[in-house]
Specification:
CATH class: Alpha Beta
Radius of gyration: 19 Å
Largest sheet: 7 strands, mixed
Structural class: alpha/beta
Helix content: 25-40%
Order of helices and strands: EHEHEEEEEHHHHEEEEEHH
Number of strands: 12
């Protein structure tokens, strides 16, 4: 039974990279029925796109998003730094799908500001080649980490996150995250927003921030490389969703006939989407 949700926010899927947990994303999308789906940047990793690596599971996610749109879900694709090439198509609409750079919504009388967050990252704005090199290195690290975790699990030990260990031990990384969150919330408070919703830094969070000018709620949807998290808004409340593999025991081979019909209905939209990404 699919859960009805007012809003689902996903970011940093990084489709087209080795680190993407595509099957887990698909499991999650098949479990919800949102009125609005907000894709908050870095959905397709165009920076690291390789023609030789875009598995069927990654393509199925795009098909699922299109299927949701054909069934009435409003889909907002907010561009990030890894899919920045889509920014030339900002404000483009295809049925229920809209490509935008930021999104402002009124949620039950409260103002919400959605954007990816790369605008605050100086390494991207001024030395993009370094940022792209870092993205490639991160992908390699995640791939190596999966190999290490396979060995650890075979020995009956818990998984270990190399990237989280590095982030938590490097003062510069912690300061960047803190500065990012402070900048986002300060701007949100200055502009009278009740919620500011970001992605980019792969750090899921929901918390209230107060300064001398006021307060707002800072939210970050995390990522689907390590944290496997999403934001959900329903009945005037925000929740941080954490993927639990035990919840999804049905094989992807056992999809319902309804989902197969959705795939058929979205074939034409999928062709248009693929063409858009080749321009």
């Amino acid at each position: 039974m699919k859960r009805k949700v007012d809003i689902v926010v996903l970011s940093d899927l990084h489709l087209g990279t080795y680190g993407c947990h595509a099957k887990e994303i698909l499991h999650y999308l098949n479990s919800v029925k949102p009125k609005k789906l907000i894709l908050n940047g870095d959905i397709i990793d165009i920076w690291q796109f390789r023609k030789r690596y875009f598995p069927k599971a990654h393509l199925q996610i795009i098909k699922k998003i299109l299927a949701l749109a054909t069934k009435g879900t409003r889909v907002y694709y907010i561009t990030g730094n890894h899919d920045e090439k889509l920014r030339r198509f900002s404000d483009t609409k295809m049925g229920n799908i809209q490509i935008i750079d930021k999104l402002l919504l009124n949620l039950d009388g409260k103002k919400a500001w959605f954007f990816h967050g790369d605008v605050f990252d100086a390494s991207i704005q001024h030395t993009k080649w370094i940022a792209k090199l870092g993205g490639w290195g991160y992908d390699v690290l995640i791939l190596f980490n999966r190999f290490v975790n396979t060995i650890l699990q075979s020995l009956g030990k818990e998984k270990y996150s190399l990237s989280k260990k590095i982030k938590n031990s490097v003062k510069g990384a912690l300061k960047f995250i803190s500065d990012f969150e402070t900048t986002a919330t300060d701007l949100a408070i200055d502009n009278g927003f009740d919620y500011v919703v970001c992605g980019h830094i792969h750090q899921p969070a929901i918390r209230k921030v107060v300064n001398e000018k006021g307060s707002c709620v800072y939210l970050n949807s995390g990522d689907w490389i390590e944290n496997l998290t999403a934001l959900e808004y329903h009945n005037e409340q925000w929740k941080l969703y954490q993927y639990n593999p035990d919840t999804y025991k049905l094989s992807m081979m056992n999809r319902s006939l309804i989902e197969e019909e959705e795939d058929d209905e979205t074939s034409e939209m999928l062709s248009a989407f693929q063409l858009l990404n080749t321009i």
